[in-house]
Design a protein that fits this description.
The complex is a heterotrimer. By secondary structure, chain A is an alpha/beta fold. In chain A, 43% of the residues lie in helices and 10% in strands. Chain A is globular and about 55 Å long. In chain A, 55% of the residues are buried. In chain B, α4 packs antiparallel against α5 (141-147) and α4 (129-137) packs across α7 (167-182). In chain B, a hairpin with a 6-residue loop joins β3 and β4 (63-66). Chain B is built from 10 helices and 5 strands; from the N terminus they run ββαβββααααααααα. Chain C has a single domain (2-138), classed as Fumarate Reductase Iron-sulfur Protein, Chain B, domain 2 (Orthogonal Bundle), CATH 1.10.1060. In chain C, α1 (14-27) crosses α6 (93-105). The longest helix of chain C is centred in the N-terminal third of the chain and has 14 residues, at 14-27. Classes of the chains: A alpha/beta, B alpha+beta, C mainly alpha. The complex binds iron/sulfur cluster (SF4) (4 copies) and FE2/S2 (inorganic) cluster.
């Protein structure tokens, strides 16, 4: 099955391990994710002001490209757009929802985007996790060659995969999808209350301290609940919860670093796709010693 | 419709002038008495010195062109932009590396791009400016270099960008990085440089240097042109 | 937590009314529905850094008190939508925070001065961080 796929900027720069492991895992499950031939940054955050038009240009242009792919015959009547980054997912999905119900805003957008085909509102924005759930986790389990036996994984959702209500990929109060995936991969799930707590998000540029405090709370709780590793689905969450551990260590004596990986890296690992595809050397807090100690690599 | 008019009315700094219809904006301005000290260079569409904005009577569109290339049209309101206020960041290309974040490191404001495409619409070279700014954000140096190859640094995109980005400076850094670190080295060039170093042409040059002006002229006229 | 407006008499005037209306229009939220239960404030993960609790911001907006624009709170808000998930009146407080930020950003104000972010930092931070903070904090 072929799907249009939107990578977003960060998967092409600092989160290549996310993209590589995701594409390879999807392929292993018989899904081909076709990168949009031409795309722009979605803007990363949904524009909340009611009168905003300008900040809708970026996400809507991306959606037009999916319709372009169908017009050009690259895809045949498949308007589902698969995302990996939680922020891209949220921004594209929300913008899509708004313009479909606001013809006035749509008209203004078409006016500015005069060189594009008009957006017909056909696109459905999805996160890869939703696609996996749809396919069935028993199918995922069948593909596992090297189960993550004995690995205690804490799934971390952050904000934008779950909120606001109506735009999340799962029940915001009791999400299951990452838990189910980890179990399908043979790992042990460590549920912890802070799995949907904010990582500090964009404050990481000028208020590292806010992020360090959030990361400290989230990670030390995961540790206390017995986790050995954290799995997540957003390159900004990943930066805040891994790279910023250096900050946490400085500000909170006694803090013990914990490896943080993308859920797709765990999938690629369990599917036996090889360490290269997983890109484990690119994770800031090296997960390899732990994985080696469990004979998983 | 009657005969084509041989003159048109243009407005420069708000004042109306009758000018021959066949002139470029630059020639027309000289025709009415302007003298270019800055804001003109090659007069051939290559140097990017003659950036100009105009509107036509009855249209809301703010259009952009090179004054040495664009022929005047009736009812043009013209303002030349001899210089786009913009700072080129200083760097030592030998010390940079073509890392995914390097363009954002020197020009972090590109992260403000709205994908509005205004820059593309302004570009007199018809470049996909938005696409190269976007490629810059995701660290695709090669794509920026490829898409911006014909950029003249005229500054028009920068004057129009609502996110206050200066696309051409970013593109220049990308092309420099591309040339230095990513482009394949030309083997012919390397071979020839080596030959020069080894003195292959020293004799010939010495001989040429010894010739008189007349002899040189004769040699030049008789030269063989291989296509 | 400092009390930004402690001891001040708040006058409900036409001007205050106009301010409330603008926030309502920009945020698209029915601000008057808020009955000060404090649910948003208890759900908010950023209150330790705020000078006004989210529920207090809501109250001041209801009263049309423009001084709320001087508060640090909207700039500390990380748009996590926890407050919205907890509000029994169905208000998305994150939208109200955005409206307050926008009011300032649209008046030649930048919260983030990009010049103050060092090269070293820029080399490290992923595009997603830079893009989102510039979208939220610059005009
Ligand atoms: S990209 Fe910008 S500077 Fe370069 S030619 Fe086009 S408008 Fe001029
Ligand atoms: S004009 Fe500026 S904001 Fe618009 S697409 Fe071009 S670079 Fe981006
Ligand atoms: S969206 Fe802002 S105000 Fe609401 S809970 Fe999150 S940080 Fe607090
Ligand atoms: S949760 Fe809703 S009703 Fe309660 S104080 Fe906050 S905004 Fe008001
Ligand atoms: S004068 Fe050089 S491009 Fe016009």
């Amino acid at each position: 099955m072929r799907f249009a796929y939107y990578p977003g900027c960060t998967l092409k720069t600092t989160a290549r391990n996310y993209e590589d492991s995701a594409l390879a895992s999807a392929r292993a499950l018989g899904m081909e994710l076709l990168e949009l031939p031409r795309w722009n940054c979605c803007g990363t955050v949904h524009a909340l002001a009611k009168d905003d038009v300008m900040h809708y240009l970026a996400p809507i242009r991306v959606l037009v490209r999916v319709e372009d792919m169908n017009r050009e015959g690259i895809l045949e009547g498949n308007y589902r757009l698969v995302t990996l980054c939680a922020m891209c997912y949220n921004t594209l999905k929300r913008a899509n929802g708004v313009v479909k119900e606001d013809p006035d805003r749509m008209r203004k957008l078409h006016d500015i985007m005069e060189r594009e085909q008009p957006y017909e509102g056909k696109v459905e924005v999805l996160h890869l996790l939703e696609l996996l759930r749809e396919m069935g986790f028993e199918k995922v389990a069948e593909r596992v060659e090297r189960p993550l036996t004995g690995l205690r994984v804490a799934p971390y959702y952050g904000c934008l995969l779950l909120r606001p209500r109506g735009f999340g990929i799962d029940n915001p109060d009791s999400p299951r999808v990452m838990e189910d995936l980890i179990r399908a991969l043979g790992g042990e799930v460590v549920e912890f209350p802070y799995r949907a707590r904010c990582c500090g998000s964009y404050h990481t540029v000028e208020r590292k301290d806010i992020v360090a405090e959030a990361a400290y709370k989230i990670l030390s709780q995961a540790r206390e609940m017995g986790a050995e590793i954290v799995a997540l689905a957003c390159p900004l969450c990943s930066f805040n919860l891994s790279e910023r551990q250096d900050e946490v260590e400085r500000e909170f004596p006694g803090f013990r670093k914990i490896p943080v990986v993308y859920f797709t890296q765990l999938m690629a690992l369990a599917f036996g796709l090889g360490e290269d595809v997983c890109g484990l050397d690119q994770n800031h807090v090296d997960p390899r010693p732990l994985l080696r100690s469990k004979s998983l690599i | 419709m009657g005969e084509e008019r041989s003159t048109v009315t243009i407005y420069v700094m708000g004042k109306a002038y009758e000018v021959p219809a066949s002139l470029t904006i630059m020639k027309a301005m000289e025709y009415i008495g302007y003298r270019f000290v800055r804001g003109a260079g090659c007069r051939a569409g290559f140097c990017g010195a003659c950036a100009t904005l105009y509107r036509k009577k009855g249209s809301y569109k703010l259009e952009a062109a090179l004054a040495c290339q664009k022929v005047v049209e009736d009812g043009m309101y013209i303002a030349t932009i001899p210089f786009a206020p913009a700072e080129k960041r200083t760097y030592d290309i030998n010390k940079l590396r073509p890392t995914p974040n390097v363009l954002l490191e020197y020009y972090p404001e590109i992260a403000r791009c709205l994908s509005c495409n205004t820059c593309t619409k302004a570009c007199p070279q018809d470049l996909q400016v938005m696409d190269y700014v976007q490629a810059a954000i995701r660290g695709d140096i090669e794509e920026v270099a490829r898409l911006s190859f014909d950029c003249l640094s005229c500054g028009l995109c920068a004057m129009r960008c609502p996110a206050e980005i200066v696309p051409y400076n970013v593109a220049q850094l990308a092309r420099r990085l591309y040339a230095k670190y990513l482009a394949k080295t030309s083997e012919h060039l390397m071979r020839r440089l080596k030959e020069i170093e080894e003195g292959k042409f020293d004799e010939e040059l010495k001989r040429l240097k010894g010739l008189s002006r007349e002899e040189l002229k004769e040699l030049y006229d008789k030269r063989e042109i291989r296509v | 937590m400092s009390t930004l407006l402690a001891g001040r008499v708040i006058r409900i005037s036409e001007r205050n009314g106009r301010f409330s209306e603008r926030v309502k229009a920009l945020s698209g939220e029915e601000i008057d529905l808020c009955f000060q239960c404090g649910g948003c404030s208890s759900a908010c993960p950023m209150t330790s850094q705020m000078d006004l609790l989210p529920s207090k911001v809501m109250r001041l907006v209801q009263l049309g008190e423009e001084a709320v624009l001087k508060s640090r709170t909207p700039w500390i808000c990380s748009t996590c939508f926890n407050c919205a998930a907890r509000c029994p009146r169905g208000i998305d407080i994150a939208n109200v925070m955005e409206a307050l930020r926008q009011m300032l950003l649209r008046s030649k104000f930048d919260h983030l001065k990009l010049e103050t972010v060092g090269r070293e930092e820029l080399r490290e931070i992923p595009p997603i961080a830079l893009i989102s903070s510039l979208r939220k904090f610059t005009s």
